[in-house]
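Appendix C reproduces, verbatim, an entry submitted by the partner laboratory led by Prof. M.T., so that reviewers can inspect both the input and the predicted structure.
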Amino acid sequence: MSSTKNVTDLSKYIMTLPKTEISLLSMIFISFFVGAVGFIIDMVPGISLLHDTLYGGTNGVLVLGFSSIMAGAITQPWVNSLGGRRMKMKQSMFLAFFSMMIFSLIYLGGCLASSIMQSDLILNSIILASAVIFAFRLLVIWGTSNINFTNSTLISSVQPVLIVSMNIVVAFLSLATNIGYFSVIGFLLKILVASAMLILAIYSFVMVVESPMRKNLGVGSLEFLSLFLSHITEDSPELESIFSEIGEPVDTLVGVVAFQRGSDIKALFISPSVHPGPIGTIGGANMPTILSQRFDTFTMVAHGPSTHDFNPVSVRELEKVENAVREALDGMEYHEGASKFRRYTRNSATIGVQFLGDGMLILATMAPNGFDDIEFGVGLSMMNLAGGRCGSKNVVVVDCHNSFQGETGRILAGNPEMFDLLDAVDSIECPPLRHKLRVGCAQRKMDGLSKEDGIGQSGVMAMVVEAEEQRTAYVLLDANNMVMGFRDEILEELLKLDIDEAEVMTTDTHFVNTLSGGHNPLGKHRRDEIIDEIKKAVSEAVEDLEEVKAGCRVVRIRGLHTLGPTNSTELVSTISSIVAVSRVIAPIIFVLALIFVFAWIFYWA
């Protein structure tokens, strides 16, 4: 399993929390149920089932339900007052609810053991449950809220303190309880010592997982996790500050194809060798939409050859990409005529080639085989090789990114797929004639679909290029790749229209990657609706056809601040090593701690 896959797999733990009202009602209902079941399990002879159900349920609501609701209400404003990651009330209430569930399971286990063994173990089970939920809350709050250990400890103690306090009050007022008489001092001493053991375990574990990232990247693991969660839950851009500190400048390229109608630009086709990552709206993750919106004409932003090494560290860096495109447009020379669209295949690689003006546009894919990003060095080699053919001054290469295989599908220097691509480029034939050029464009935002369906904010964009009565549809979906085989389904449907050739691409937007599972390729859901929207966009583009001139230019983007190959690898490797170490260390530390706590509560004290 690769380091990248180890990190990506963590996204499966991303989940949508229930609304505050649901957590509140659940705490009331479940606390009544737990209280009633606890009394029924440890039933006193001569007491009716109805009596135990009502009194036990009342005890559960008083001790567990109300205490947990109060804890949820107190935790959220307390955390937010300390200036860490802002906690939402639904998060606080769900934490209280989940902690109450842990407490309930341990309490019911104690009731069952007490009934079977004919021994009073209920009080000790309450002590164990209080210590465990304190430790659980501490691990969650300290790990995700970006506040210090002392404050996290105080906030984490709120729920167990309220539950214990309510237990004492109920017992001393001789209200509904099944824990019998007990020494308050001994009761509290047991809880304090048990909690101290678990605090030591948690502190030791956190120090182990903190040190690698702080040493390698200068930022703590907890701070990184907190800022990551802030982005996922609140769309906070603060994670960019960390990336900016560890990033490094690179020079890269952007290819621009412009279509001129009269004195105006009708459409732009841009292929930046800048990766649209890392996630959500951080850095360049939503670059295809952001860059498209910065030009007052129809603009398609395709996926140029690049990997995660070329993720911009902040949205501000996209200004450098925009400036490079405007530089290309300022010096653009427009020419009449274009060649027909032709495909060339060598082994697993297929390229689609069309000469536009004095430039060449190359669309690269491995479909129907799966693949992911084409590395910048591979793309640069393709540009240089193609540039020597047919006198093309500018060669724009696009990674179609249209057949998902996962992180293992990257095409890097030295891979057999790289040589397949170069062989395909080397087989390009120069067209004898150039034909008059007509272009039509259309965009559909696909409002009925969302990122849950794999669709980003730009929806689908279609550009139809007509040369010598051959119509070629360039379809660009704002998505992060597509499931294997879906491209072929789309092409089959498009060729039923008034179209001779077509290619389907995705932008590789990482705007859609904030969901559980990390990867979110297009075509998992609602395929028919997606295909229908694509067909409508292509049909609209055909209706928009009009004569244009074409210009091609490739320019350098200078000093783009990216994660860089060194830091990108180090970040992924560090997180992967932390995950690997945690899987070994966490069970050892916490199991040993729980054994000592259990022994202290049930045997030593």
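The two ends are 46 Å apart (CA to CA). Additional entries are available on request from the coordinating office.
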